[in-house]
Design a protein that fits this description.
The complex is a heterodimer of chains A (329) and B (252).
Chain A: H1 3-23, H2 31-40, H3 44-79, H4 91-105, H5 114-134, H6 141-164, H7 168-179, H8 187-205, H9 208-214, H10 218-223, H11 228-250, H12 256-264, H13 272-297, H14 305-328
Helix pairs in contact in A: 1-3, 1-13, 2-3, 3-8, 3-11, 3-12, 3-13, 4-5, 4-6, 4-7, 4-11, 5-6, 5-11, 8-11, 9-13, 12-13, 12-14
Chain B: E1 2-13, E2 16-27, E3 31-35, H1 42-50, E4 56-59, H2 66-72, E5 73-76, H3 88-93, H4 108-120, H5 136-149, E6 154-158, H6 166-181, E7 185-189, H7 193-199, E8 202-207, E9 210-215, H8 217-220, H9 223-230, E10 232-239, E11 242-250
Parallel strand pairs in B: 3-7, 3-8, 5-6, 6-7
Antiparallel strand pairs in B: 1-2, 1-4, 8-9, 10-11
The chains are: A mainly alpha (329), B alpha/beta (252).
Chain lengths: 329, 252
C-alpha cells in the first residue's frame, strides 16, 4: 500500500475515534447537544463536561498514543529489533518513580501539576543517567544495557517506596496511578504535556532517513554519512520527552509502543522511516479506542486504561509472534 | 591521479597495534585486492581508512566531512546485515541516501542509478521481493547493488564475493573491473587468492597489521611471501587467461 494512502486511512480512523471519544460518556448527552455545547458554549453543564472533561481526555489519548507509537517505532528502528519498546530505556519506570515519590511525600498535593512535574523530572534524570552510562559512541548494545540497569533501579526504588509506605491509602493511590488512566484529566495536563511531547515528536520525526540507512547496519549507515552519535542522541531525547510526558499525565501504559509498530510494519514495506508517521497515527487510534472501551465495558468501576491495554495487548502480541513463526518455517 | 592517500595509519587495541604504520596511495582506475591471513587487520585497516575507527595517521577519506565522504566512497561491510524485510529495490535505493537533500524524494537520477545497479547484479525480477527472504548469495548481490547505486568514485569492500557462487564471483570481479576502467578506484579485502590474482591489478599484502608487500599480483604472490605470511605453498602460473593461482600445501 502506498504510504500517503495508509496515512490517510489511519488519520480517518483517528478522527472517527476522536469524535466517538467526545460523544461517549456516563453523562449520556445527545450527539447534537454535545457538539453544539462544545462549539458554541451554551447549556452550562453540557459545555462544562464537553470542554473540561471529554475534550482534554480525547486530546490526551491522541497525544499519549502518538508519543508511544512514535517512540516504539523509533526505538525498534534504531535497535533493529522488533521487540524493543519505549520502556526499554528506563524512561517509563523513572517517570513513574518521580510520580510515586511525589505521591508518597505528599508533594503531589501541594499544587495542581506537582505530580506530572515530578514525573517529568524523573524522566529527565533517567535520560541524563542513560546518556552518561551509554557512552559517547553511537552503539546500541550499551544503550540497551544502560536502559535495563536504569529500569531495574527505578523499579527497585518504586518497590522500596511502596515497602516503606506507612499509609495504606498512599499505597493504593500509588498503585492505582501506576495502572495508567486518562480519566479526570484537565486542560492543565494537556498544556504541561504538549510542549514536552512536541519537542520529542519533532526529534523523532527527523530520524526517518537515518533509521532507513540503519537497515544495513551501523557501519554501512555511518559510511553513508549518518552520524550515529547524533542520531542516537536525538532518538533518546525524543523518546524520553514524549514517553516521559505521556507517563507523567497518564501513568504507565504498556504494549502500545510494542504492538503498534509491529502491526503496521507490513503495510509500509517494513521501511523504518515510513513506519514513524504510521505508528504515530496507529498509536493514537489504539489509545483512543482503548480509552473508549474502558468507559463502555465497566462504566461504574473505573477500569484502568493500562490494565485493559495489557489485557488486549499481550494476546495480540502472542498472535503476532505466532504469525511470524509460521512465516519463518 | 591519486584517488586515496593514507599515511602512517595506526590503530591500537590497548597497547597492541592492529594496523601498524600503513602508508599507501591508490590511483584512479586501479582494482586493488587487500589480502592477508585471518586477523591480519584487513577489516580494521579499511574501517580506519574510512574514518569509522579511531586511528592515528592520516587518511584522505577519513578527513572528509561525513556527507562529502559518503559521496566519495561507498563501503560494503563484511557483516551482511539486512534488519527488516524491505523490498530489494528499496534496499538498493538506500545507496542514494548520500545524494538526497534533507527530506527530498528520490529523483529520476536516483531511480536510474538504482535500476542500473539492479541490472548490473542481475536482480531484475527481484525488485519487489523482501530482501530477507532471499538466499545468502542473493542477499550479497543486493548489498553489492546498493554499493554500486551509491555511484561513488571509490569503492571499499570487505570480502564482497564471499558466499557467492563461482559465476557471480567472476561477474562481481568483472563489474569491479568495468568500474575501474571507467576511472573508479576499487579496494577490496579478498580471501580467494585465485580470484585476487586473476582480477586485481594490484595486491596489498597485510601481515600482523603491517603492509609487507604492495605491487602487481605476480610480484606479491611470491613463494617467500606465501610461506612467511600464509604458511602455504602454491602453484602460480602465468597463462593466456592471466595469472593462475592454486594453493597446494601447508608449509609450517
Amino acid at each position: 500500500m502506498n504510504l500517503s494512502r495508509l496515512l490517510g486511512i489511519l488519520s480517518a480512523i483517528v478522527a472517527a475515534l476522536f469524535c466517538a471519544s467526545l460523544l461517549i460518556g456516563p453523562a449520556g448527552f445527545g450527539i447534537g447537544d454535545s457538539i453544539s455545547a462544545l462549539v458554541r458554549g451554551d447549556g452550562e453543564a453540557v459545555t462544562l463536561v464537553m470542554r473540561e472533561i471529554r475534550l482534554p481526555r480525547a486530546l490526551l489519548a491522541v497525544m499519549v498514543g502518538v508519543s508511544l507509537g512514535l517512540s516504539g517505532a523509533a526505538l525498534q528502528g534504531f535497535l533493529r529489533n522488533p521487540l524493543a519498546e519505549p520502556g526499554l530505556i528506563g524512561v517509563t519506570s523513572s517517570a513513574a518513580l518521580g510520580a510515586v515519590i511525589a505521591l508518597q511525600t505528599g508533594f503531589a498535593a501541594s499544587f495542581a501539576l506537582a505530580l506530572p512535574v515530578s514525573a517529568l523530572i524523573g524522566a529527565l534524570v533517567s535520560v541524563l543517567l542513560l546518556l552518561l552510562l551509554a557512552g559517547p559512541r553511537g552503539g546500541s548494545l550499551t544503550l540497551i544495557l544502560a536502559g535495563i540497569a536504569i529500569s531495574a533501579l527505578a523499579g527497585a526504588f518504586l518497590s522500596l517506596v511502596l515497602n516503606l509506605s506507612p499509609n495504606p491509602f498512599a499505597v493504593s493511590e500509588i498503585v492505582f496511578w501506576m495502572l495508567g488512566s486518562l480519566s479526570d484529566r484537565s486542560f492543565d495536563h494537556v498544556l504541561i504535556a504538549l510542549p514536552v511531547m512536541a519537542l520529542g515528536w519533532a526529534l523523532l520525526a527527523s530520524l526517518g532517513r537515518g533509521l532507513d540507512a540503519l537497515t544495513l547496519g551501523q557501519d554501512a549507515a555511518a559510511s553513508m554519512g549518518i552520524h550515529l552519535g547524533r542520531l542516537r542522541l536525538r532518538m533518546v531525547v525524543g523518546v524520553a520527552a514524549s514517553v516521559g510526558a505521556a507517563t507523567a499525565v497518564a501513568g504507565a501504559i504498556g504494549f502500545v509502543g510494542l504492538v503498534v509498530p509491529h502491526i503496521l510494519r507490513p503495510f509500509v514495506g517494513a521501511r523504518p522511516g515510513a513506519l514513524l508517521p504510521a505508528s504515530a497515527l496507529g498509536g493514537a487510534a489504539m489509545v483512543l479506542a482503548a480509552d473508549i472501551a474502558v468507559r463502555l465495558i465497566l462504566p461504574d468501576r473505573d477500569l484502568k486504561l493500562g490494565v485493559l491495554m495489557a489485557i488486549i495487548g499481550a494476546p495480540l502480541f502472542l498472535h503476532l509472534i505466532y504469525k511470524t513463526r509460521r512465516q519463518m518455517t | 591521479m591519486t584517488a586515496l592517500a593514507v599515511t602512517d595509519l595506526t590503530v591500537l587495541r590497548g597497547e597492541c597495534p592492529v594496523v601498524d604504520q600503513v602508508s599507501l596511495s591508490l590511483r584512479a582506475g586501479e582494482i586493488t585486492g587487500l589480502i592477508g591471513p585471518n586477523g591480519a587487520g584487513k577489516t580494521t585497516l579499511l574501517r580506519a581508512i574510512l574514518g569509522l575507527q579511531p586511528h592515528s595517521g592520516t587518511s584522505s577519506l577519513a578527513s572528509l566531512p561525513a556527507r562529502q565522504r559518503a559521496r566519495t566512497v561507498a563501503w560494503m561491510p563484511q557483516n551482511r546485515e539486512i534488519a527488516w524485510p524491505v523490498a530489494v529495490e528499496t534496499l538498493v535505493m538506500l545507496g542514494r541516501v548520500p545524494h538526497l537533500a534533507g527530506g527530498a524524494k528520490p529523483s529520476a537520477e536516483d531511480r536510474a542509478a538504482t535500476a542500473r545497479a539492479l541490472a548490473d547484479m542481475a536482480l531484475n525480477g527481484f525488485e519487489t521481493r523482501a530482501a530477507t527472504d532471499l538466499s545468502g548469495g542473493e542477499q550479497a548481490r543486493v548489498l553489492i547493488a546498493r554499493v554500486l547505486a551509491q555511484e561513488t568514485p571509490i569503492i571499499l569492500a570487505d570480502e564482497p564475493i564471499a558466499g557467492l557462487d563461482p559465476a557471480f564471483q567472476i561477474a562481481t570481479m568483472q563489474i569491479f573491473r568495468c568500474l575501474a576502467d571507467q576511472g573508479k578506484t576499487i579496494l577490496a579485502a579478498l580471501h580467494d587468492l585465485g580470484l585476487a590474482a586473476r582480477h586485481c591489478t594490484r595486491l596489498l599484502l597485510l601481515d600482523k597489521g603491517r603492509l609487507v608487500a604492495d605491487g602487481p599480483p605476480r610480484d606479491v604472490l611470491t613463494p617467500e611471501n606465501l610461506h612467511s605470511v600464509f604458511g602455504i605453498a602454491a602453484h602460480v602460473m602465468e597463462t593466456e587467461h592471466g595469472l593462475i593461482f592454486q594453493p597446494l600445501e601447508i608449509t609450517r
